[in-house]
Amino acid sequence: MAFGKDHELHTRRFGRNLGLGLALLGFVAVMFGLTIAKVERGAPVQQGFDHVLRPEMLPEETK
Amino acid sequence: MTDATSNLTGPQTGEAGFGDYVALLKPRVMTLVVFTAFVGLMVAPGSHHPMVVFASILFIALGGGASGALNMWWDADIDAIMRRTRGRPVPSGAVRGDEALSLGVALSGISVIMLGLAANWVAAGLLAFTIFFYAVIYTMWLKRWTPQNIVIGGAAGAFPPMIGWAAATGGISVESVLMFALIFMWTPPHFWALALFMKSDYADAGVPMLTVTHGRPATRRHILIYTALLAPLAIGTAFSSIGGPVYLAVAVVMNVRFLIGAWAISRRDDAAAEADSYKVEKTFFRFSLYYLFAHFGALMIDAGLARFGWGLW
């Protein structure tokens, strides 16, 4: 059985859904990229006290 | 078959394609926003993570687009009258007014919050103010009230480089104010040239453009005055920390040409303009676009040279 040609309205609706889907995917990708960038750059300030001595967190000695 | 839409024929209102929603965001205006915001961000001191730069520009552009959608929602009545704007998604019936409003409000919120998270809250605050300024101060208030609409409303288009700078530095400085001032002073001659060759469009829609309230000869004089005020500001920026030899050369050449164009417009009357189909005005308008891109492009080049240690000052 041959399928009939889609109505123009359905083509338009499909295009809109596809566009929205791609926009959402793009948003997820941006969020992921931003998270990686923030974690990479923010690493030193994210260390907190956890009952273990870590020399890199001590204030630098003044000579 | 149960699909109620299957018997519909012809173009449907309320069933807009994705492109109609993109058109609501004024993509051509967005290119200017993206470019100037990008320059503002790149000429700012310090190093910037490429992903943060990309996300910041994306959300600044989205905020600009949101204000465009709000503008189209509010102005649908006058857009339907003017030839230049009657094909826009709302007056043409492709998108409903309330959809444009919803999209504008949603994108405004998303863009401001995301810029705050991606960059900082100073930049996000400036973006929120820009959207408010364009949608409320300019579109709802100034545009239909005063012939100074373009002068004061031009601030909305001038904010993007300042937002870009704030995204990079977390603050405002003389340099970002200079970039703001450059676009702010450039906007009136740019739009008044357009108003001159758009003839009766604004009058038909009841928009009090300078051409309508003060007449076309006064508009021609105003173009010259604003271009003369713009020139020293544009050239003077060369001697700030974001300027450099490339910018200075570009600014001198472009401003001399811009002044010559403004002078030619001020010396003409409408009979002469009609005779050559507003050739001088159209050339001036087109050149004004190159003018702005050249200035901001030169700022980028000088910033690049300075980063490699080749900046002269």
Structural notes for this entry:
The complex is a heterodimer of chains A (63) and B (313). Chain A has one helix at residues 8-42. Chain A is mainly alpha-helical and 63 residues long. Chain A has one domain (8-57). The longest helix of chain A has 35 residues, at 8-42. The termini of chain A are far apart. Chain B has 313 residues and is mainly α. Chain B folds into 2 domains: 15-172, Tetracycline Repressor, domain 2, CATH 1.10.357.140; 173-313. Chain B has helices at residues 18-24, 27-42, 50-74, 76-79, 97-118, 121-142, 149-169, 174-197, 201-205, 210-213, 216-236, 245-267, 270-275, 279-307. In chain B, helix 2 crosses helix 7, helix 11 (216-236) packs antiparallel against helix 12 (245-267) and helix 12 (245-267) runs antiparallel to helix 14. Mean pLDDT of chain B is 90; it is low at 1-12. At the A-B interface, helix 1 of A face helix 1 and helix 3 of B. Chain B: Interacts with CtaA. Chain B: Belongs to the UbiA prenyltransferase family. Protoheme IX farnesyltransferase subfamily. Chain B: Converts heme B (protoheme IX) to heme O by substitution of the vinyl group on carbon 2 of heme B porphyrin ring with a hydroxyethyl farnesyl side group.
Radius of gyration of chain A: 26 Å
Radius of gyration of chain B: 21 Å
Average pLDDT reading of chain A: 79
What would you say the CATH architecture of the largest domain in chain B is? Orthogonal Bundle
Overall SS class of chain B: mainly alpha
Per DSSP, what share of the residues of chain B sits in E-state strands of 2 or more residues? Answer: under 5%
Q: Specify the oligomeric state.
A: heterodimer
CATH superfamily of the largest domain in chain B: UbiA prenyltransferase
State the helical fraction of chain B.
Answer: over 70%
Distance between the termini of chain A: 87 Å
Protein name (chain A): Cytochrome C oxidase assembly protein
Keywords (chain A): Membrane, Transmembrane, Transmembrane helix
Transmembrane segments (chain A): 18-37
Organism (chain A): Meridianimarinicoccus aquatilis
